[in-house]
Amino acid sequence: MADDMDDRKRALRAELRERRRIRTATERSADAAGITQNLIDLTSDLKVGYLAAYLSTPDEPPTREFLRWTAERGIRVLLPVSREDGLLDWAPYDGDDEEADLLGMPTPTSELLGPIAINGVDLILVPAACVDHSGMRMGWGMGYFDKTLGSMEACPPVYAVIFDDELVDSVPRERHDMPVNGVVTPSGIVSF
Prior knowledge:
Elements: H1 2-21, H2 25-45, E1 50-52, H3 64-72, E2 76-82, E3 88-92, E4 98-100, E5 106-108, E6 123-127, E7 130-132, E8 137-138, H4 144-151, E9 158-161, E10 167-168, E11 182-185, E12 188-191
Parallel strand pairs: 1-2, 1-6, 6-9, 7-10, 9-11
Antiparallel strand pairs: 2-3, 4-5, 7-8, 11-12
């Protein structure tokens, strides 16, 4: 049964990676504008002063314009840094240089904080491969965010940032998978 679940997740992730890879420049530009505005709206509506987010890679729904907006307004942001033990450290977003972490993901070069630094945030924005209509999130298979969310005593709202076609009817689910409270897409915000 576990092998079947792994195979289903692997196939779905491969399909989603390919869809992201072949997005046109026109689609990417329109998606960037929509996602940025919807992230601003969500942050404003929730009156967020401190959040955890991530630096998007070229194929992910873009977060960088939104992060620049947060810096301009003095909203404090923590960004994840992958650790070898499967946990996430956190670093304050300062809008300056970035480097790749051990998984090759972009991370800031600012002061490195431990895993519990996230405990004071008002909102958590997470990457996802897809999310279903019940709020079940499927990540990219490393489990970093599932471990982080599962270990928090008082978890604030968690929203995944995805493309419109990545809000799906159902995703393969395992015991350790953590749901989200909503999604931000180019066309809107959906809360579960």
